[in-house]
Amino acid sequence: MRRLPVGPLAEQAVTWAEGVLANPGASPVLSPRPPPGWQATAEWEEQRRAAAEEVVRPALARWVATVRELLPRARPPERAGLAYLPGGEGDYARAVRIYTTLPLSAEELHQSGLDHIAALEARAVELGTGLGLSGLDEVFTALRDSAGRVAPEESIRQAATAVRRAEARQESSSPSPFRRRVR
Q1: Would you say 109 and 83 are in contact if contact means Cβ atoms under 8 Å apart?
Q2: Residue (of 80, 70, 86) closest to 1 by Cα position
Q3: Cβ atoms of residues 61 and 15 within 8 Å
Q4: What pLDDT is recorded for position 173?
Q5: What is the 3-state secondary structure (H, E, C) of 81-115?
Q6: Cα dihedral angle (114, 115, 121, 124), rounded to 10 degrees?
Q7: Distance (Å, rounded) from C-alpha 91 to C-alpha 83?
Q8: What is the 8-class DSSP label of residue 39?
Q9: Close Cβ partners of 179 (under 8 Å, ≥ 6 residues apart)
């Protein structure tokens, strides 16, 4: 078995690339701008447009054709993970060691994540109960319904006030020289 793309992800990438090919003026290659007043701007723009048209656009078109050829053999979304590729289990274990520096297996790391999510959900339910909500679904619904009702500046002000209250409580119980003040 070879390393094949995940079908829906490959389709999304092809759709994006076809959009770029259909509108060459909006190519990501053309989005950076030179510094204002730069003397070589005209030459740079000319070279960049030539590279976009003569190199990047044909390469992107070839890439789209290649990915389209692979789509019939692409992996289904339920087999998207690294573990489903040849040698993927070993690659995944190596990635866990490199990127987490934890002496855990992939299964242990996954379970740790699930445990943390369960603890956060339990805390959300506990806090929601204090607000008259019953269950995680009601907590999430209340969060979604309240989104955008408070201006960002007001949210920051309220958060800073809450931090000051917590610091005041901390000061009265046991002062710490490592505490950081929020203003």
Answers
A1: no
A2: 86
A3: no
A4: 75
A5: CHHHCCCHHHHHHHHHHHHHCCCCCHHHHHHHHHH
A6: -140
A7: 8
A8: T
A9: 167, 170
68 and 108 fall within a common domain: no
Domain containing residue 47: 7-78
pLDDT in the model for residue 108:
93
Residue 1 predicted with pLDDT over 70: no
pTM to 2 decimal places: 0.55
Q: Count the domains in the chain.
A: 2
Q: Which residue has the tokens 């809450």?
A: 162
Given phi > 0 = left and psi -120 to 50 = alpha, else beta, which region is 135?
left
Token pair belonging to 58 = 């044909």
Q: Which amino acid is at 107?
A: E
- Answer yes or no: is 1 within a domain: no
Residue 94 domain-assigned (yes or no): no
- In DSSP terms, 75 is beta-bridged to 6
Judgement on whether residues 118 and 158 belong to the same structural domain of the protein: yes
Q: Which residues, including other chains, have CB under 8 Å from residue 167's CB and lie 6 or more apart? A: 179, 181, 182
- What is the three-class DSSP state of 6? strand
